[in-house]
Amino acid sequence: MPLSLPPLPWRSVPAAMLAALLVVAATPTLHAQPGQPPLDEAALAPYGGYRGLGMMTERFVERVTKNPRIGHFFKDVEADRLAALLTEQFCAVLGGGCRYTGKSMREAHEGMKVRQADFNALAEDLQAAMTEAGYPQWAQRRLVARLAPMQREIVE
Amino acid sequence: MDNATDILRRTLIAAAAAFVANGALAQGFTGKLTATGGVSTVEGAGGGGLTPWALITGYGTDRQIGGNAHYTAVRTNDYALATGGVALGLFDRVELSAAKQRFDTRDVLIPISPALKGYKLEQDTFGLKVRLVGDAIYDQDRPLPQIAFGLQHKRNRDDTVIPFLNSALGGGIRTRGTDFYLSATKLYLEPGILANGTLRFTKANQYGLLGFGGPDGDRYRPEFEFSLAYLVRPDLAVGVEGRTKRGRLANPALNLREQMAYDVFLAWFPSKHTSLTLAYVDLGQIVGALTNDRRQRGWYASLQAGF
Q1: B291-301: per-residue pLDDT in tens?
Q2: I need a labelling partner for B254 at 20 to 30 A (CA). Which of A134, B10, B155, B187 fits?
Q3: Residues of B with CB under 8 A from a CB of A
Q4: Are A149 and B142 a contacting pair at CB < 8 A?
Q5: Above 0.85 for ipTM, yes or no?
Q6: Is the Cβ of A122 closer than 8 Å to some Cβ of chain B?
Q7: pLDDT for residue A19
């Protein structure tokens, strides 16, 4: 029996095209930056997606800038830009599909005389921010584990 | 209880001194992450409860000094052990420790002489540990563990049991000995697993509580120890430990056979200044003929205070 598709109603064609456009347009807005590869939503799901990760990172940046032990490292830093770059970096190390567009860790910390204790104080702020965001322990450990080796490039 | 309270008193004094030293030395705060200082072993070194780890004790980083004092009580079917000690971690590289053990034989020696009821063997242990390579915490992207070399010089102060054993067995048991060990510790942060293996070269009989060497000679023998822990939370670890003990003393009348020791532990780190470890231990037979040839099983509790 020959198959025949029902005729497409003339008026629904632009509607379908519009819907498709909306979907395409909506996808890139999940990214903070244009020109980023597609996100791996599954990898970011435990962190509340890219948005959730970004919100946690903003709280984390707030903590470090207010931390009396390490706040002085951030006094000339624009908090929003730092949070955006860190979100990109966290997303990248978690396999979330982002490309980190900031400086290398070595470049970014050159001459800052970051000590071991400073690095660990920052790690504690990150743990606190993740706990506040309600991340499960295993998800917290995953992010800390993937950032830990950066100690070699950051600490003098 | 004199035994326990005396060691506890000394430990508290040491802890107070450690806090004062902390204020002077550590310039405000110490930097390692919670729990990464480990707890204190029964021989005073930083590690688990039974076996030393390659981690340097305390919370000092590469530019700081960390330190702690601990008090540990163990009670098994037939014996009790109280241990107190202090340890310093220098620049996350060198660890110095001193511990005093009092091993209460309770009623075990009564068949030998009623005067030996409640006889306590005392032993002092002085430890040195040096981190050789690796970083257990930061090297998450490398397979290499943190590796440390250590030694424990032990001085048994007993003047009763070891002379008795020497006359019964034909001599050769010394009251002093030095253990050497290599420890490798790796923290797998993502799954939250800490693994440690220690290879110890020792002449000790029952940790040195029954002296070192014996009529069969004075040679070092290798022993293997392990710890495996799971970090439930950043401040809570559960795990198991094991330690082979193959002391060569033999006497059919006393049954001096040694067996592997194990424990299952829960360590809680409410802050970087304190930790509490509770464990169920099985130390194997200790002078079996006088203790119904049973394995010495019981409870272990350890409190550590430091910085």
Answers
A1: 999 999 999 99
A2: B155
A3: 28-33, 61-64, 92, 137-142, 189-192, 231-234
A4: yes
A5: no
A6: no
A7: 52
